[in-house]
Amino acid sequence: MALKGIPKIKKGDDLGEFILRAAEKQNLSLEENDVIVLAQTIVSKSEGNVVDLREVKPSKLAERIAARLDKDPREIEVILQQSDEIVRLRHVIISRTKHGFICANAGVDHSNVDPEYVTMLPDDPDASAARVRDSIKRKLNVNVAVIITDTQGRAFRRGCVGVAVGVAGMNPLHDLRGKRDLYGKELRVTITSPADDLAAAATAVMGEASEGTPVVVVKGASYDRSQGSARELMRPPEQDLFR
Amino acid sequence: MALKGIPKIKKGDDLGEFILRAAEKQNLSLEENDVIVLAQTIVSKSEGNVVDLREVKPSKLAERIAARLDKDPREIEVILQQSDEIVRLRHVIISRTKHGFICANAGVDHSNVDPEYVTMLPDDPDASAARVRDSIKRKLNVNVAVIITDTQGRAFRRGCVGVAVGVAGMNPLHDLRGKRDLYGKELRVTITSPADDLAAAATAVMGEASEGTPVVVVKGASYDRSQGSARELMRPPEQDLFR
Q: Is the ipTM here above 0.90?
């Protein structure tokens, strides 16, 4: 269920507070084991993780890339600063972000923020997720899991889908090794990612444009409780057959 | 919502019939624009798209690969026969299937089927989805969209997620180009994939093991009606920056 009526978020806003108020208004009670999914943009805004492009001095490299991609050199500069490694560079920059994610534009986004500003991914998205979880725990004494999502492109398939960039209160993976199928045989699929499946589920109800709702509550999801970290979702390059 | 009580599927079974009966039993009415998501395995079984491994003669190549990967050479042979191109080969075969999907093991699965058998992806998953859609249309005079899912690994991230391999009655992509954000600016994310987001959502409630429920009904999802085809989800190699 999408939470309606979440206002435009400013630096310092307590997202847990907004979530509670919005849920109350639509008579939705937050219960033990619910999963709260938040779009990355509002988390970044609440943390002030926003850059005023007028204060960015693009490097020579950023200017060259910007000319080639026909993009704003200041935005490219922010992307480079958020990146540890450039994985591909053609009409888009695919990089490994400082958090370890491989995605386009290092998660830097000029949409859903004031003109002349861009949002970046939260500095530590797991910690951001944990803060929302703790805020709800403090106020309601209820344990929820929290997922912070970003909408990202992927290899081989068209269209962006929601993925988890921050996680708290759940194991983002579910290990089926040793489990048996209907016929008592080992399963082909041995590790699933409930965090990414739920991130995609939430993205399907969030929408991207101006009518978007950046917070979704998932009830009855099956996941393993743990502190959790989206870092567990990153495939080490040496194990990545697709790389 | 997962449909409970779908029995083990045999060749020739009318999946639409089973879906209707299961929905009735749990007092779930199927309505216009609902999305019915089916796990690939039951579709393949209903179409007899199952191979008796005892009748497979592995080629020399299949035997060499099988020795290297410590797998059943007959299963490798089926994987090769389902593949048009080998994209990677290390501890797993990543190939482009005859349908055009890039995935591990060409979608060949030894789980959730009788011992000595494997299931393959449906020969034409869009047509399979259309058959289920038509069957429900005939019986209830209701237009639903149908997605056939497979649970697949992906580049850069650990854990398998649900993706759409067959689609009927919906555009698997949603084009946001020209739409505006909260601030009137162009969106960063221009094309989303509701079909894959919903495939992942359904996978989160299906489960993989013996207690799995292979059919999920999604209500209130937002998508563009069209005939649709999962082929639209395939990124042409020359446009695939990740490749």
A: no
